[in-house]
Design goal:
Number of domains: 1
CATH class: Alpha Beta
Radius of gyration: 16 Å
Number of strands: 5
Shape: globular
Number of helices: 5
Largest sheet: 5 strands, mixed
Strand content: 25-35%
CATH topology: Aminopeptidase
CATH superfamily: Gcn5-related N-acetyltransferase (GNAT)
Mean pLDDT: 91
Length: 159
Amino acid sequence: MEIDFRLTELTDVDNLLILVQEYYEYDGHPFDLVQVRAALENLIRHPEWGRVWFICRELQAVGYVVLTLGYSIEYLGRDAFVDEIYIRESDRGQGIGRVTFQFLEDVCRSLEVHTLHLEVEHANTNAQAVYRKLGFTDQKRYLMTRKLTTTEAQIAESK
């Protein structure tokens, strides 16, 4: 099985949005095409914020992965977050996730990232088991989130 990773470009956004919408439907996230497109385009334009790759088997995209970059005193420097990972259901259970995480670890090392984080839905016990096998541990913390209002002017200004 040949798995490759292709860094996305702005010209890929329409194809990427198909996979993102599939993922959001699978995981039960609200999907607003305009806002998700803007967020993807901004990330692609700013590689210092992170990267988006297609996960490809035999040159066909079977998923995607988003890595965002940050900095943490607690984790002693640069850290990264697997913001989104999606592999089409028909392609799961074949080792693609394991290969993807090895790729991400290699990328993180090249970017001098010290710690890699991810989040998983409480009900997604299959993914939790996979992540534990890959060495991720539950930090016995809650991820707490507060969305800050972003105006249309701020979105346009960031482009």
